[in-house]
Amino acid sequence: MAEAHDRIKVTVEQLSIxxxxxxxxxPWSETAFLFQGFRIRQQQEILLxxxxxxxxxxxxxxxxxVKQQLEDNLVSLAAEQLQPQIAKVEFSREMQQAEPAFHSxxxxxxxxxxAVRLGHELDVVQVKVVVKECxxxxxxxxxxxxxxxxxxxxxxxxxxxxxxxxxxxIALGRELHLRQGELEHQGMCGMLHDVGKxxxxxxxxxxxxxxxxxxxxxxxxxxxxxxxxxxxxxxxTAAAVDVAYSHHERLDGRGYPRGLxxxxxxxxxxxxxxxxxxxxxxxxxxxxxxxxxxxxLRILFEARGSHFDAELVGLxxxxxxxxxxxxxxxxxxxxxxxxxxxxxxxxxxxxxxxVLDAQxxxxxxxxxxxxxxVLDSQxxxxxxxxxxxxxxxxxxIEVYRRKGLIIPPHL
Length: 411
Known about the structure:
Blueprint: E1 7-11, E2 20-24, E3 38-39, H1 43-52, E4 55-59, H2 67-82, H3 91-117, H4 124-140, H5 142-148, H6 157-175, H7 180-192, H8 202-205, H9 213-220, H10 222-231, H11 238-246, H12 267-282, H13 293-302, H14 310-320, E5 328-331, E6 336-341, E7 351-356, E8 362-369, E9 384-388, H15 397-402
Antiparallel strand pairs: 1-4, 2-3, 2-4, 5-6, 5-9, 6-7, 7-8
């Protein structure tokens, strides 16, 4: 057993011949390696590790001819861990950078699908560029990107969904304290997870009613189709291929396409499974209206342990919050407002920008803080009666942000 100070965590990309691998980021039994610990003797072994792992632990003492490289890796890792994960800036200031980055990423996500539809190769380099911009924005202030992710266009669901999944996956990765490079990798997995849907006929993908057994089989084939598409591109990592193939697997083994049980589902696929389901539930589709964020989180919470990883669901609920900015609420007196922010110390009492009166007509815009005993015109305390998805009551939340009425705090 290697001593703790001799064990160095490295990514698969940093491996080289001569390194002695002592531990993987998943159980040895889930891999094709016969021995629990081995020295890398040929490039093929690194490629095999790349198919099943993101990173490994190397024993410095038992590694040959790579001492300096291991020391450099260790110094780099230590420096990265010492850097603060977030250099916070004000929401309004960050929005100036986040908005063009978001729109560029949106265009790129739509371009990915169009390229595949036309039989062209994915421009993976450009995808990495826009994902990197999203990560950097979220490290400065995640509020801006999370706000922009609530702006949806029903005519471009699949492309926008891929981008939102990338953003939510990055947000969840921050809760897991992933470093910037890992967040970018996770964002790439999210961006590419549904690329196989381009192979599903539109009449099935957008069918208003229920699917027949044959149609369901074709719909579910998008996981295998995504794997094929991504494997044909040498710039796509094994992890992204795994996520495209495995994000519909379930912990109880009842998912598809392979019916994997919990230990065999790649970790990044478990992350994407949570955020993919959240966004799908929270968004309008041809065959169903989107549910509120609160209802989407409730569905995830009820399925934790059977469908989704319980720890990841818990972290995601904490990240999004019960009342996320941008959701629409109807108050007990019938007035309607937009959630502006919610204090971490009082998660059930958000600040609300009231925009419609009890008759659902535009009223005097004002912010109320439910942490305080605020009374309505009838001298009754304001309470939230119902939560609706972003866009309910034809409210355009961006109009109010641009007017300067919505400035969420740091998240």
